[in-house]
Amino acid sequence: MREIVVISGKGGTGKTSVCAALAHLASVGARKTGRGAVICDLDVDAPDLHLLLSPVPRRREAFISGNEAVIDPERCTRCGTCAGLCRFGAVRHEDDAFAIDPLRCEGCGVCVRLCPAGAIAFPERECGEWYISDTRFGPMAHALLNPGQENSGRLVSLLKQQARELARETAAETILCDGSPGVGCPVISSLSGATLAVAVVEPTPSGVHDFGRVAALCDHFRIPVTLIINKADLNPAETARIRALAAERGRTVAAELPFSPDVMRAMIAGKALTETESPLAGLLAGAWNIIDELAARAATPAAPNL
User: Would you say the pTM of this structure is higher than 0.70?
Assistant: First the structure.
């Protein structure tokens, strides 16, 4: 089983559009081999792969993570101990009553343990929902974190676990993940156990800088990286710089995609680029052949030295 994670050092590089196209190409290949792919949207803070794939949920579960303090007004003696103890300013004092602001509460439990009246409950916190769905390209695991909630890395880990179970159930040979932008906690969780990372890079100074950070993260976890340079024709100098950096580090540039209004047209139509007549479809098909080969090579154990 191979896990391919599409990542980017910054948002807005076209990562989700590329991932949707690769998911379509993987499903086309599955019709020939009989071994499909499982799709996984790991950008749980702001997921958007569902906009192109139109998933139909067959399983919906609440994501429970951490706890949240809640004051019982009938048992509260208005002593103000909780307000004095809370380092996060989560205790509100209004109309001679105390209450917890759920957006500020960090779930540390100090107020719960030290309330003299025992008036503060500590129920589990529902932070969002996760889903197992069906799409025209195959089964999909995805989620949505509630606004202001944390523990996105934990939710990403849960989704990857569900995707692996789906892959075993369906005998899929590939898990294709749309990762989060940047290098934070959800990205680290996205890369855990990955076979290959596909970095979508824009030819701008900030794009090159942020790609350097995410590539260093992959190097730290010994995950091979291949590149797709998006809007490559808008800044030939930076594109050449990215190409040179890739060659210096022994990384493959799977494709250089020109800027095209076809991307927006495909989004509006709710289609992957490879489902359209755009010239980009052929470039992405060539990129998928390279990515598929690199992933197969990376997933094959090296022969022992004798």
Answer: yes
Backbone angles phi, psi at 215, to 5 degrees: -65, -40
Residue-level length of the chain: 306
Alpha helices, H only, 34-151: 50-53, 81-85, 110-114
Q: What is the pLDDT of residues 267-276, one digit of tens each?
A: 999 999 999 9
Rounded to 10 deg, the angle between the 236-249 and 205-220 helix axes is 20
Is residue 82 within 8 A of residue 98, CB to CB? The reply is: yes
Rounded distance between C-alpha atoms, residue 134 and residue 144, angstroms: 17
Inter-residue contact 142 to 121 (CB < 8 Å): no
Pairing of strands 37-41, 138-145: parallel
Main-chain phi, psi angles of 241, to 5 degrees? -65, -45
Domains along the sequence of the chain with CATH? 2-64+129-299 (3.40.50.300), 69-122 (3.30.70.20)
Q: Which residue's entry shows tokens 């809640």?
A: 70
